[in-house]
Amino acid sequence: MSTQPAPTTPSYSPGLEGVIAGASKISRVDPEKQVLTIRGYDATELARKAQFEEVAHLLVIGHLPSKSEYKTFVSGLKKHAQLPKELYAVLRALPKKTHPMDALRTGISFLSGYDAKVLDNSHDANVAKAIRLCGAVAPIVAAHWRIQHGKRPIPSNKKLSMAADFLSMLTGEMPDEITERVFNASLILYAEHGFNASTFACRVTASTLADIYGSIVAGIGTLKGPLHGGANEEAMKVMLKIKDPKHAEQYILDAIVRKEKLMGFGHRVYKKGDSRVPALKELGREYAASQGNMKWSEMAEIMENTMVREKGIYPNVDLPSAWIYYMMGIPIPLYTPIFAIARMSGWTAHVIEQHDNNRLIRPKSLYEGPEMLTYTPMADRG
């Protein structure tokens, strides 16, 4: 007699909500404890204490670096932050209205043509490509923005941290200590977050044994969507509509009546609040105080209190990042590309992990259409 269990019909979950789609050693999102860990380290502790480059090493290489490992890793990042002159020409050739995320996709695709090992999916080759991608992403974003606005690109400065370097390449000015520190923390909090939509897109693409560049392009395209990466841009637009903290509560109440979806609130995984929000809010308040302007912090607090009271919906990390970036003078259309800059280390880590232990990701669909229709010749269809 067979001891095999009887076959079961796979369950259907819209949006794959609650479905475990794979195993990973990269991060753990615990919605009950409201904790995000990256290879076992609390992400909020990393945000408060670490450099973004350390966390990128943790993700791509698999452990926090020693001093010598850190030096080598940063050297690799800085090497690839020097973009090929031909890439600048490509960015200049893009239509004036090209979205920064589309320019980034183009830039990453262009870099693949410069990689002699583009089709080599071995672990060591992928790590080398991951370092290249992590180094190049911020300069591509900054260069395209400046070109798009009639300014000359500013080369990467080997002496600066990635956080300070990006802000310097973007604005032409050196950020002060607190701006660099808070921006660095935001990059860490955006670096990795489990099987989110863009990361899963990277893994699905990688599972076909597509190269890492193609996989990352899939992630960038997915991140562009307003339900994922574009949320902080939309959140800031709402805050600009509100204008003054004293109008925030009524705006939220009216939006609830209109059944309007408010970006920066709610999360597919976290129901009791995004684990990354408290740390970024705290840093944001510190930054706002240093600038002598608590307006946006106070507005966000009122928005949060109203949403929690009325709907039981908590803010996600996109709400504090939106107003923090705005106070830093970062243009709103760059909020999602900054997300990509941070997430590049997480994306590449997932592609490496997928390639190292691959199985093609190929789920089933639940068919809900008609059955066994009879073909009618076109002449008889009227």
Spell out the key features of this protein:
382 residues; mainly alpha; Citrate Synthase, domain 1; Cytochrome p450-Terp, domain 2; 2 domains; three-stranded antiparallel beta sheet; globular
Contiguous uncertain segments of 5+ residues: none
CATH topology of the largest domain: Citrate Synthase, domain 1
CATH superfamily of the largest domain: Citrate Synthase, domain 1
Count, helices = 16
Q: What report would you give on this structure?
A:
There is one protein chain. With 382 residues, this protein is mostly helical. It folds into 2 domains: 23-227 and 332-356, Citrate Synthase, domain 1 (Orthogonal Bundle); 231-327, Cytochrome P450-Terp, domain 2 (Cytochrome p450-Terp, domain 2, Orthogonal Bundle), CATH 1.10.230.10. It has helices spanning 43-49, 52-60, 67-80, 85-93, 100-112, 123-148, 162-171, 177-190, 197-207, 212-223, 231-242, 248-257, 277-291, 295-311, 318-327, 335-356; strands at 27-30, 35-38, 41-42. Strands 1-2-3 form a 3-stranded antiparallel beta sheet. Strand 1 and strand 2 form a beta hairpin. Helix 6 (123-148) packs parallel to helix 7.
